[in-house]
Amino acid sequence: MRPIALSLALCVGLAGLGGIVPPAEAQSTASAVASGTFQDISPRYTGSGTATVAQTADGQTVLQLSNFSVTPGPDLEVWLVAADAPNTNNAVLASTYVSLGALQSPTGTQTYGIPGSVDISDYGSVVIWCEDFSVLFTMASLR
């Protein structure tokens, strides 16, 4: 029984590694740097919730999506985009962007690590992007 319990604990613990999430204690002492509210792009692609860029007590920069919801789709990614309010596919692709990885879930609170090489002041928005079809699903301007 113990090996099964240990295996289950390891699987559950490793499942969250995809988004490079800092420990809970670091998240709870984070200071907001910028935030914005997700907007519907069209009647077909909707999004809601808040995107907050924060600095943790240990110096990491993270993106937290809270009260988040987006229309489900294939191969959705979380991108930081230089443009302040890219509301079309072409506006996103014409801008500088960096992927923070695959969207963890179409709903709920989630956290993504921002690489230390990224200067957050160079980015004006967060978008949820469908990599398979090059489609913008929702966008939040950062202020």
Please write out the topology.
Blueprint: H1 2-14, H2 24-28, E1 31-37, E2 39-40, E3 47-55, E4 61-70, E5 76-81, H3 89-93, E6 97-102, E7 110-114, E8 125-130, E9 135-141
Antiparallel strand pairs: 1-3, 2-9, 3-4, 4-7, 5-6, 5-8, 8-9
Extended strand count:
9
Runs in which pLDDT lies below 50 for 5 or more consecutive residues are 1-20, 22-27
Spatially, the strands of the biggest sheet line up as 2-9-8-5-6
**Helix and strand string, N-terminal first?**
HHEEEEEHEEEE
Helicity range of the residues? 10-25%
Number of helices: 3
Written description of the protein model:
With 143 residues, the protein is α+β, with helices and mostly antiparallel strands. Helices cover 16% and strands 41% of the residues. The protein has three helices and nine strands; from the N terminus they run ααβββββαββββ. It has helices spanning 2-14, 24-28, 89-93, and strands at 31-37, 39-40, 47-55, 61-70, 76-81, 97-102, 110-114, 125-130, 135-141. The strands form two sheets. It has a five-stranded antiparallel β-sheet with strand order 2-9-8-5-6. A hairpin with a 4-residue loop joins strand 8 and strand 9. It is globular, with a radius of gyration of 16 Å. The model is unreliable at 1-20 and 22-27 (pLDDT under 50).
